[in-house]
Amino acid sequence: MLAYGFDMGIVIAIDGPAGAGKSTIARRLAEQLGFTYIDTGAMYRAVALWALRQKLEPTDMHRMEQLAQAASIELATETNRIILNGEDVSEAIRQPEISEAASRVAAIPAVRRSMVAKQREIAENANVVMEGRDIGSVVFPDARVKIFLDADPGERVRRRAGQAGEPDTAAVHRQLAERDHRDRTRAEAPLAQAPDAIYVDSTNLSIDDVLEALLKLVRARMTNGKVYH
């Protein structure tokens, strides 16, 4: 029985700033280990999407708390689909305006507490690789493996611009700087490296290089070096 009050499977927590490569690496790591991949950012994006569809302000703390509590969010991990209230919103939540709104929604303490409860529920009966901003520091402080994945700002801008097909890197730089500020200074669960998390700088590494490094870290932390498939 762990400190936050329930039994759970093995948790590998990957935290870090936007553009560090968390989603890609976490998904591939989960595939290699036979674990369930959980994209926590998609959960906040789903709440933000619902809010915008309801023409609500993402900064309305009371209404956002109500939506977060009422939202039925399913993560179809085998197909990487996100289901909000029975609707597949996998594509809709990836729009730039949803990303911006999600950052504001995620800064609301009550929303984070609601999402944390849902995230812990997911891990009750599964081995998971979960990525986000506060997984190792708040959601699962007793996670078996904690990784803080980072990259220098210029590389993060380049990656994010490439993902969005955005040629205006100056605009992407401003957006990431604003996102970093909100993530690191919010009152509830700010982005921070957990004291026992392993720092990994992916700036000059390929995806395969990062994956190999993380697999070595995970295997070293598993009992007797066992690899899960």
Structure in words:
There is one protein chain. This protein has 2 domains: 8-35 and 127-221, Rossmann fold; 41-126, Rossmann fold, CATH 3.40.50.300. It is built from 9 helices and 8 strands. It has helices at residues 22-33, 40-53, 61-70, 96-105, 109-122, 135-139, 153-164, 169-185, 207-221, and strands spanning 11-15, 36-39, 73-76, 81-84, 87-88, 128-132, 145-150, 198-201. The strands form 2 sheets. Strands 2-6-1-7-8 form a 5-stranded parallel beta sheet. Mean pLDDT is 88; it is low at 1-7 and 224-229.
Blueprint (SSEs and pairs):
Blueprint: E1 11-15, H1 22-33, E2 36-39, H2 40-53, H3 61-70, E3 73-76, E4 81-84, E5 87-88, H4 96-105, H5 109-122, E6 128-132, H6 135-139, E7 145-150, H7 153-164, H8 169-185, E8 198-201, H9 207-221
Parallel strand pairs: 1-6, 1-7, 2-6, 7-8
Antiparallel strand pairs: 3-4, 4-5
Helix pairs in contact: 1-9, 2-3, 2-4, 3-5, 7-8
